[in-house]
Design a protein that fits this description.
Elements (H helix, E strand, L loop, with lengths): L2 E3 L4 E3 L25 H4 L12 H76 L1
Antiparallel strand pairs: 1-2
Length: 130
C-alpha cells in the first residue's frame, strides 16, 4: 500500500520509515526573557492561597447585588410613599375646601330663609294694614 505524506501532499510508494519526520506546521511561541530584577520586585506570599476562593467572592458579589437591589426597592417604595402622601394631602386640602364651601352655602341658605320669613312677616303686616 502506498504511504501518503500529508505534509508534502503527494502519494509515494516508499516506506514512511525511510523519511525524516516532517517539521511541525506551527512553531511554539517563545516567552520573552525576564529582567534580572523582575523576580525580586514582587516576592510571593507563602501564606496566600494558590487558588482564589471563588465561592466566597461569588457570595460577596451576590450579597452586594442583593443589597443594591434592596436599596433600589426601598428607594422606589419611598418615592411611592411620597407620592401617596402628596395625593393624601391634596385630597385632604380639597375636602377641607369643599367642606368650607358647603358651610358657606348652608349659611347663605339659612340667611335667605330668614330673609324670606322676614319678608313674609312684612307682607302679612302690610296686608293687615289694608
Amino acid at each position: 500500500m502506498p504511504a501518503i505524506d500529508l505534509n508534502a501532499g503527494s502519494a509515494t510508494g516508499g516506506s514512511a520509515e525511510s523519511r525524516p519526520p516532517a517539521a511541525p506546521a506551527q512553531t511554539p511561541t517563545q516567552t520573552p526573557p525576564l529582567s534580572p530584577g523582575a523576580l525580586d520586585a514582587a516576592p510571593l506570599d507563602d501564606t496566600a492561597e494558590t487558588v482564589p476562593d471563588t465561592a466566597a467572592t461569588l457570595a460577596e458579589a451576590v450579597a452586594r447585588r442583593a443589597e443594591v437591589l434592596l436599596l433600589a426597592q426601598q428607594s422606589r417604595q419611598q418615592m411611592m410613599q411620597l407620592q401617596i402622601d402628596r395625593m393624601k394631602d391634596n385630597f385632604n386640602a380639597t375636602q377641607e375646601e369643599r367642606s368650607e364651601q358647603l358651610r358657606e352655602m348652608n349659611a347663605l341658605r339659612d340667611m335667605a330663609l330668614a330673609q324670606a320669613k322676614q319678608d313674609d312677616e312684612v307682607l302679612k303686616k302690610y296686608i293687615a294694614m289694608i
